[in-house]
Q: What sequence folds into this?
């Protein structure tokens, strides 16, 4: 039965975990425990580990782990096939985020398949289109400058809390039509929700965000504006307004999808910049090449994955997958596929352009991709213009956090 986001009921999709729960059709030689996102090798150097998967693993394998067993795809071509065939690989029940079964909602538009998916996505497409996001550029630039000016004379900063986190939070508040005075509160909620190891702290943060966003949605219904929350609250699908869980599920997914991903991406890039002074100079020396520089950095330092459920039997590279199997496209590994990107870990700003999978592909291609590119571009331009020379504070040990969005936990910089 297709899902109905207007009247949500928790879906019943079994989550197989661990070596005991391997479906009978999976050949034993393809069962592995690679430790993607959790293993020691991954946490030591995530992107080097992702590149090495092309040597150490078969192109398709069935990964067993304590979170969710799934087929893993690391070839660029296979991931593209998965992402473009929703009639075989569905998004229903494919996201990992837990919710209260008594107050259930779907994350929109990510958890619905076409053709219904298009109707939800269409609501925000004008805002997130390349021309739509250009309208945000001046604001993003002034937010970035304000954050840099706060730390510029201090000789150093904790990049994560001084810039990497507040920038996407500020952009989110601006997009939604929420007050910038909420920035520090939102930053602390986002840190607790997305990075605390303590479930109680995470639960409290989620509750605070939920209460705040639900009230904000009500307020926008009373006093609408042109921003995202109002757009969603006023939108109609098939002639009816969206239900409260639909509006909340959409707003909430923007929060989850748009904060941590940009944050982690900025952290990776700034770590690399801190360690490569000559490459910083190269960026500054070729300002006209900024779009290629951003694209190449996004390719090498991609941070997240796409998950799907098989709904129709399919074969990939001779491997049979059956309805009910979960599949993950390991996008950071696909972006480092040496068949498509030779010498894949090398950051080459003059590489011939090919489609990167950082933002996935197909109908669910990241809705915020143009915005994310703009945020990274503005951050690079504004930061390097003001703080061209900086390095990692001596003695720093970079710790990567485990989880579905890969990134360094802290990044103390000095200049
Ligand atoms: C560098 C930053 C970002 C990365 C790496 C990223 C990555 C992704 C990926 C891989 C997907 C597809 C997931 C799938 O196929 O299952 C996705 C979807 C999505 N992202 Fe992003 N994202 C980023 C920034 C943003 C921003 C800034 C926003 C909005 C504020 C956003 C909103 C969304 C939405 C709404 C979807 C669902 C699209 C749909 O289902 O049609 N993302 N993102």
A:
């Amino acid at each position: 039965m297709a899902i109905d986001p207007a009247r949500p009921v928790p879906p019943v999709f079994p989550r197989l975990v661990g070596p005991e729960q391997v479906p009978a059709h999976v050949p034993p030689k393809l069962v592995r425990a690679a430790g993607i996102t959790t293993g020691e090798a991954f946490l030591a150097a995530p992107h080097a580990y992702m590149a090495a998967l092309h040597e150490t693993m078969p192109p398709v394998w069935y990964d067993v782990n304590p979170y969710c067993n799934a087929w893993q795809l690391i070839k660029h071509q296979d991931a593209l096939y998965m992402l473009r065939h929703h009639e075989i690989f569905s998004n229903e029940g494919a996201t990992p985020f837990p919710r209260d079964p008594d107050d259930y909602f779907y994350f929109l538009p990510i958890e619905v398949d076409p053709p219904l998916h298009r109707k939800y996505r269409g609501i925000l497409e004008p805002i997130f289109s390349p021309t739509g996001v250009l309208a945000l550029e001046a604001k993003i630039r002034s937010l970035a400058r304000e954050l840099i000016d706060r730390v510029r004379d201090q000789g150093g900063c904790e990049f994560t809390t001084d810039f990497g986190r507040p920038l996407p939070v500020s952009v989110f508040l601006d997009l939604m039509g929420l007050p910038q005075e909420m920035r520090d509160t939102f930053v602390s909620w986002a840190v607790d929700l997305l990075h605390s190891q303590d479930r109680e702290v995470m639960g409290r943060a989620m509750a605070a965000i939920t209460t705040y966003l639900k009230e904000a949605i009500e307020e926008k219904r009373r006093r609408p504006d042109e921003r995202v929350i109002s757009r969603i609250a006023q939108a109609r699908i098939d002639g009816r307004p969206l239900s409260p869980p639909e509006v909340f599920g959409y707003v909430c997914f923007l929060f989850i999808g748009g904060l941590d991903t940009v944050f982690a991406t900025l952290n990776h890039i700034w770590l690399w910049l801190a360690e490569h002074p000559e490459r910083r100079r190269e960026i500054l020396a070729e300002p006209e090449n900024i779009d290629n520089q951003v694209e190449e950095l996004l390719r090498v330092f991609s941070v997240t994955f796409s998950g799907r459920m098989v709904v129709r039997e399919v074969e990939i590279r001779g491997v049979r997958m059956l309805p009910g199997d979960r599949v993950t496209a390991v996008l950071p590994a696909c972006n480092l596929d040496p068949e498509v990107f030779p010498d894949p870990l090398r950051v080459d700003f003059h590489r011939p352009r090919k489609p990167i999978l950082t933002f996935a592909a197909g109908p669910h291609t990241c809705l915020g991709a143009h915005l994310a590119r703009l945020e990274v571009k503005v951050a690079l331009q504004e930061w390097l213009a003001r703080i061209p020379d900086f390095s990692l504070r001596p003695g720093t040990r970079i710790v990567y956090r485990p989880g579905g969005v890969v990134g360094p936990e802290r990044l103390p910089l000095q200049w």
In short: The pocket of protoporphyrin IX containing FE is lined by residues 109-110, 121, 253-254, 257-258, 261-262, 265, 302-304, 306, 331, 358-360, 364, 366-368, 371-372 (CB under 6 Å). The chain has one domain: 28-414. The longest strand covers residues 306-310.
